[in-house]
Structures are given as structure tokens and as C-alpha cells.
């Protein structure tokens, strides 16, 4: 088996969120994080979604992510005034 599977887990109280993803379903996993954050019946916040999204983007970067990261790195506090 040559396919690499990434595992990402979050435990909040009694709830456990475990995501298995590879390069091919990275974007679907990111969308699932948003769906969980929007679900008021889950103890899964937008902050949780943002933190896990960052971990997914770090694990499986794509060209667009790298471009955005390089643009953000060049910003300073002056750019937001």
C-alpha cells in the first residue's frame, strides 16, 4: 500500500472527532470541518475548524496555500492601518 493516510483527532469532553484523509480528499475534509462547526448540536467551534484546517493545510499543502502563505508572510502591521 503506497497511499499515505493522514489522521487528525480532536477530543472535547465526551466527543471525539477523528478525520482520516489523503491528498485526494483534502478539500472534502476541509468542507467537513466547516459543516461540523456550523452544527449547533456538536461541541465543535469555528476555532476548532480553523485550527484543524491549518493542520490539514500544513500536512497536504497545495500551490494556492503556498501562495497565500507567502503573501501573508510579507504583510506587516502597517498594511492593516
User: Any low-confidence stretches, pLDDT <50, length ≥5?
Assistant: none
Biggest sheet strand line-up: 1-2
What distance lies between the first and last C-alpha atoms, to the nearest angstrom? 52 Å
Largest sheet: 2 strands, antiparallel
Helix-residue proportion: 40-55%
Derived structural class? alpha+beta
Instruction: Write down the oligomeric state.
Output: single chain
Order of helices and strands: EEHHH
* Cα shape: globular
**How much of the sequence is in beta strands?**
15-25%
Overall pLDDT: 83
Cα-based radius of gyration, to the nearest Å = 15 Å
Record the SSE blueprint.
Layout: E1 6-12, E2 15-21, H1 26-38, H2 46-59, H3 63-73
Antiparallel strand pairs: 1-2
How would you describe this structure to a colleague?
Helices cover 47% and strands 17% of the residues. By secondary structure, it is an alpha+beta fold. The chain has one domain. It has a two-stranded antiparallel sheet with strand order 1-2. A hairpin with a 2-residue loop joins strand 1 and strand 2. The radius of gyration is 15 Å and the shape is globular. It starts with 5 loop residues before the first strand and ends in an 8-residue tail after the last helix. The mean pLDDT is 83.
Amino acid at each position: 500500500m503506497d497511499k499515505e493516510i493522514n489522521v487528525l483527532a480532536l477530543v472535547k469532553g465526551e466527543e471525539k472527532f477523528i478525520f482520516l484523509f489523503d491528498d485526494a480528499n483534502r478539500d472534502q475534509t476541509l468542507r467537513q470541518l466547516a459543516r461540523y462547526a456550523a452544527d449547533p448540536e456538536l461541541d465543535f467551534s469555528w476555532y476548532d475548524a480553523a485550527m484543524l484546517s491549518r493542520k490539514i493545510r500544513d500536512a497536504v499543502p497545495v500551490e494556492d496555500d503556498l501562495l497565500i502563505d507567502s503573501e501573508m508572510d510579507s504583510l506587516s502591521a502597517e498594511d492593516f492601518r
